[in-house]
Amino acid sequence: MDQQAIDTAIERRASSNRADIRFIRLKEVIAICGKSRSSVYDAIKKGAFPRPVKLQGRSAAWIKSEVEQWAVQCIRASRRDCDS
């Protein structure tokens, strides 16, 4: 495979990863995680919840896949506790 083909493959992979990114606002974060607003921000301070991305000025949003991944980790941890 020549260098141009490699570069093209890398660009395609990068663009497909960017297409998967979806920003969500706090309301949807709360709907996914079931936490209150203050609990979300407390967990962020403790490093136990994904940090939001600053978009512009005071505007911020979360990456949906990161919040969903956090939820999956909570489920796995909960299931391990039940198996003990």
From TrEMBL:
Signal sequence range: none
Q: Which InterPro entries match?
A: AlpA (IPR010260), Prophage_regulatory_activator (IPR052931)
Q: Which domain of life is it from?
A: Bacteria
Q: What's the name of the protein?
A: Transcriptional regulator, AlpA family
Classification from the root reads: Bacteria, Pseudomonadati, Pseudomonadota, Betaproteobacteria, Burkholderiales
